[in-house]
Specification:
The protein has 9 helices and 7 strands. The protein is α/β, with parallel strands linked by helices.
Length: about 210
């Protein structure tokens, strides 16, 4: 089992959106996913609860809520359940949860919007990942579909010595529309640009995690 921790100290970075989309897309690629939701808001858990067990297109996934102290046990349970890819959705403004998840993960993904406040907050998140000694990288999220904001943000982040993944996730209505129905974009509109972006991010992470 490979474990991906999604962390960001800044609220609204899109951790939960990315977590559920990667998990649902992993299933479509014959990789058995599991989700652990450490956030008290439980957005990831609630999204999954809205799915149906026997839905052929958007079935309920393995997803549990946990606290930081429970994380090792929850990870063991996911592995025992046959998970091949475990995704941990962490809470914002929680150094302890993020640090524990990062230490236990094989890879840390840091979503960051190309906006001033997000870029300034990024350094504290990157420091948590660095202290964990776990491989980590930023994914630029919620970028405007037009203009050069994403690439300018990439230059700023890389200038701080932080790795940035090539795929960019843009601000698209398909993400919101899919989540409203407790689906992922590849289930809602498989031909959409949003679905293509999630596929590109998953393939990038799959290579980095050496996930067969």
């Amino acid at each position: 089992m490979k474990t991906l921790a999604i962390i960001a100290q800044k609220g609204g970075s899109g951790k939960s959106t990315i977590a559920v989309h990667l998990a649902a897309y992993a299933r479509s690629r014959k990789v058995r996913p599991a989700l652990i939701d450490l956030d008290q808001q439980a957005s990831t858990f609630d999204w999954n609860e809205g799915r149906l067990e026997n839905d052929p297109d958007s079935p309920k996934l393995y997803c549990v809520r946990a606290r930081e102290n429970d994380l090792p046990k929850a990870m063991q349970q996911a592995k025992a359940n046959g998970a091949q890819l475990l995704i941990i959705d962490t809470a914002p403004h929680s150094n302890r949860d993020a640090a524990t998840a990062a230490k236990l993960a094989d890879f840390v993904l840091i979503p960051c919007r190309p906006a001033r406040f997000d870029l300034k907050a990024l350094m504290s998140t990157a420091e948590i990942a660095k202290l964990s000694n776990t491989a980590a990288a930023v994914v630029i999220n919620q970028a405007p579909p037009v203009g050069g904001k994403a690439e300018r943000a990439r230059e700023v982040i890389q200038g701080q010595g932080i790795n940035v993944l090539p795929p960019v996730l843009h601000r698209r209505t398909a993400f919101e529309d899919a989540l409203t129905g407790c689906r992922a974009v590849h289930e809602y509109d498989p031909e959409s640009k949003a679905a293509q972006e999630i596929a590109a991010l998953f393939d990038c992470l799959r290579r980095g995690l050496k996930l067969s």
